[in-house]
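Thought: the user asked what 2-polyprenyl-6-methoxyphenol hydroxylase-like FAD-dependent oxidoreductase looks like in 3D. I have the sequence; next I should run the structure tool and report back without guessing.
Action: structure_tool
Action Input:
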Amino acid sequence: MNVDDNETTPVLIVGGSLVGLSAAVFLAWQGVPVMLVDKHRGSSPHPRAIGFTTRTVEHFRQVGVEVPPSLQGMKPPRRARVESLTGTWLEEYPWTPGGKGAYGAEDSPVHAIAITQDRLEPLLRARAVGLGADLRPGTELLGFVQDTDGVTATLRRRDDGHEYRLRAQYMVAADGAASSVRAALGIGRHGAGPLSVQRSILFRARLDEYLEHGVVQFEIEQPDLTAFLTTYSDGRWVLMLSDDIERAADEQIQVVRQAIGRTDIPIELVTTGRWELAGLIADRFSAGRVFLAGDAAHQLPPNRGGFGANTGIDDVHNLAWKLAAVLSGKSEPRLLDTYDAERRPVADLRHDQLFARADYKTHLTAPTTDVPVLDDASIELGQLYRSAAVLGADANLPPAQRPDQWAGQPGTRAPHLWVTIDGKESSTLDLFERDWVLLSEDDRWAVTAARLAAQLDIPVTFVHIGADAKPVEPNAFRTAYGLESDGATLVRPDGYIAWRTSTAPPDPIHALDAALNATAMPTRW
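Observation:
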């Protein structure tokens, strides 16, 4: 290795699947130069994840990632327990308790969508490159050391074996459940632990006639076969088996035919997979200048809530604006401590929700009847952040509930409302991009916001509700945000409420100054 060929980057991302690519997009969109390395040269031939939630689609919408329409329609996919596709259909399950499973689409300008991971990743790559990210596929991390000023990574190009060093100010580890970065940091994990080893057979077959009822997921139950069968609605199907048996090609075709209940349909084998089903959460999501995200931080088994990949994408959306604020010199580095404080409780909540539901409850050795099952909207759009970057989210509040139950509580996602901006109908979510935003019906807050933005060197945009943005429904803003006519709400760049005052305080400048100093953590020169 030539030690003189050091390169530098503000942020190094290790891992180039969904979470790593999302991190590259979010950071580059924030104007942060970023380099991503991935030992693989492209997407896995296995489609893997398919369901992306309302909140994930909101993130993609914000940064200009255009996701094509779902091949499985607008409604949540349906699941049935059957002997085989042609055998007896035993029962159909609701998507989630309560049977709705819409991920709060009524509380958002977008909706959850089904797109396979191998088709979403190229869209993210293209957007990241378009925003200026430096993507280096076929490059593996050999090791790293960190000090008080940054991280020095040793990298190797797999095509020619060339090794070189890279100096980064921060590193994001999105290198999967078996994360070498997490292991090197000595970070342990807690949770339900390993559950089983899953084998998957990806194949093509003409089976569309069995989708006419709208069911796309099938639990196969036979005396000598228990399996899970689902379609990607593009001609590809996957059969999941938990017996961890290596099967030859003819044996794969045989078990697929047993699951579908027919031997007269051609089966085209595409690929196979082997992976560990587990519920494990890292004890810390950061160490020094290194941050864990995605499966490196939380290994969550696949379920009807889509907690795995979506939780990871949420992670890096939370982290990106904080890194951007610190790297630009606007905020103190202690803002980055709020990443672990905000995201790890969410991962723990989703882990517990998984094992409170029928899919995985049987895997637990201890009773979990004390864990109430939350609906999708609560988990995806109603989670509560508690950290130094939020004022007013005390310990007595629940960790999550439906968005309409919060009504603008600090620490929650700012509510979506339809508003008219410059004569066009938009969502309030369109107001939240890279700046802090102060919302109020009282335009006297405008001078206060401008004065403090200049004084603290924190970008704060004031939006006059009723003038700059006119709610389509009268009084909807006050109800959704929990404000009186002279109150105000401070929204972070990630669209979460940092602070609010229901009515105007006696000294608005002092109140907003205190809120910004506490939550934005401006740098003191």
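Thought: the tool returned a structure. Summarizing for the user.
Final Answer: Structure for 2-polyprenyl-6-methoxyphenol hydroxylase-like FAD-dependent oxidoreductase predicted. Residues 307-327 form the longest helix (21 residues). The chain has three domains: 7-73+109-190+279-333, 192-278, 414-519.
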